[in-house]
Recover the amino acids of this structure.
């Protein structure tokens, strides 16, 4: 088993996590260790926060309360008017969206469809995917393992706090280095992303040279398969 000093730091210590669940023994449980994604609320600014920001910007200008309230309403209406509600609704109803903002803060998004059976997707009427994490290792049947490469995963459970007993770690992972744990049954559906960053020559040209291509690509397997004509 790994010791507590064998893993690098991956982020700030997670806060606000629930403790792991030990009420029952699940022989099919896999414990994933990794860095949880930061969670942020959408549209969390309040009228009072807008008022305070306006006041701080206009300290030398005297405004009556009714004028300030009118100004708050105008600012909110202007902000809402810049949002394409149809586009926003389409984004928010998706479970997984890959997105970027460019230098002009223009938003490009690519929804990802997840083919999960309806009986699993519903899960009490709630959305199936609950969290995102960068997974570095896992534990199964009492043994700890380290992934050869970190894996970004969309997961059906929330991350939980790591409890390490006297040694302060679990499988060598400690919350002080940014790690959390996910308790997931091995038959649960998850989504794993293989993210690589390099130049086009390395990722496209060199990767597809003879002898370097993945033998698991369906088109390549079909191209190499013998062509047998049916009688």
């Amino acid at each position: 088993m790994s010791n507590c000093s064998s893993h690098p730091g991956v982020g700030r210590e997670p806060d606000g996590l629930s403790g792991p669940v030990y009420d029952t023994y699940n022989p099919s449980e896999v414990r994933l260790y990794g860095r949880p994604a930061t969670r942020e609320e959408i549209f969390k600014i309040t009228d009072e926060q807008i008022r305070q920001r306006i006041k701080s910007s206009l300290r030398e200008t005297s405004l009556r309360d009714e004028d300030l309230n009118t100004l708050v309403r105008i600012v909110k209406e202007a902000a809402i008017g810049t949002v394409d509600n149809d586009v926003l609704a389409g984004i928010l109803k998706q479970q997984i969206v890959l997105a970027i903002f460019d230098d002009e803060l223009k938003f490009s998004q690519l929804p990802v469809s997840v083919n999960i059976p309806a009986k699993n997707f519903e899960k009490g009427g709630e959305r199936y995917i609950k969290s995102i994490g960068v997974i570095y290792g896992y534990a199964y049947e009492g043994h700890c393992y380290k992934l050869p490469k970190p894996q970004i995963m969309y997961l059906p459970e929330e991350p939980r706090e790591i409890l390490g007993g006297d040694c302060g770690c679990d499988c060598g992972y400690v919350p002080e280095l940014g790690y959390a744990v996910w308790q997931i049954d091995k038959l649960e559906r998850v989504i794993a992303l293989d993210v690589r960053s390099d130049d086009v020559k390395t990722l496209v040209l060199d990767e597809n040279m003879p002898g370097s291509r993945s033998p698991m690509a369906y088109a390549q397997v079909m191209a190499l398969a013998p062509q047998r004509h049916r009688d």
